[in-house]
Amino acid sequence: MTIVVTGATGHLGRLAIESLLAKGVPASEIVGLGRQVDKIADLGITVKKVSYDDVDALTEAFTGADKVLFISGSEVGKRISQHTNVVTAAKKAGVGLVVYTSAPKADTTEMKLAAEHLATERLLADSGLPHVILRNSWYVENYNVAQALEHGLFGAAGDGKIAASPRSDYAEAAASVLVGDGHAGKVYELGGESFTLAELAAEISRQSGKPVAYTDLPEDKYVDLLVGVGVPRAAAEIYADADAAASRGALEVPLTDLETLLGRPVTPLSTSIRAALG
Q: 176 lies in which domain range?
């Protein structure tokens, strides 16, 4: 069996490969694709420098693959064209199963960030390829604990609950799907322990012994704050929109699917914060 992991040089990709290795998949059966291949050179797998913009290179890399973990691209605004290349290449290469990392509630949410993910889900459905959708909710790592200790926590999520887990939980769940059977055609809504941003601030404060407050802002003011610290306006608007959507329940996802794939409880928020404080 050959498993190809796209986006393998990113944080999630590397963790997924480590999870596959931990589950007993031989390194010789794993191929990692990415742009900064030195980042995974130590894992002992086959590594190929491939971009989502190069459909021919993707097709060559997918040829002979039984399964592909398709980690979504990171360039918002370019995902649809890049993801079209991935799906086209997988179809040409005759991949047996594609496992795609999507966004929470992609088919029902108003969150702008999900639009490109929903388009990709539809590309996969139209392709006829056997596939699995992993709708990953937020990563705990999305929140910078060091910055929160220094400046406090800011957002526009109100009292909305956010189901988050560390990347390692989502990576392990993806690996479970790749090594398991009977997942084709399934859509999994994956989320960890739910918390409000005020509760996150309180947990950081409790563990660090330093006062950390959450300041809730109107969506437009949060955009201005992000732009003020160097975030490009287009990205700031996406992030603020996600927070506003969270205030309406867009990121509240049950634990069930993630814990089922993990075969264990999700990592508690307290454990993630402890690790971040390190």
A: 3-138+166-191+254-263
Classified as helix, coil or strand, 176 is: helix
Q: Is residue 125 part of a domain?
A: yes
Query: Quick check: is 225 in a domain?
Result: no
Neighbours of 230 (CB within 10 A): 7
CATH of residue 53's domain is 3.40.50.720
b/e string for 45-73 if b means 16 or more Cβ within 10 A? bebbebebeebebbbebbeebebbbbbbb
pLDDT along the chain (278 residues), means of 10: 96 98 98 94 96 96 97 88 97 98 97 96 98 98 96 97 98 98 97 98 98 98 97 94 97 97 98 96
Domains identified in the chain, total number: 1
Q: What is the pLDDT of residue 78?
A: 86
Residue 268 lies in a domain: no
Q: How far apart are CA 233 and CA 231, in angstroms?
A: 6
Query: What pLDDT does residue 76 have?
Result: 77
Q: Rounded distance, CA 118 to CA 163, Å?
A: 20
CA distance 193 to 55: 38
DSSP 162: E
- Please state whether the predicted TM-score (pTM) of the whole model is above 0.85: yes
> Does some domain include residue 131?
yes
Alpha-carbon gap, residue 189 to 245, rounded angstroms = 17
Query: What's the confidence (pLDDT) of residue 75?
Result: 82
Q: Distance between CA atoms of 6 and 14, rounded to whole angstroms? A: 10
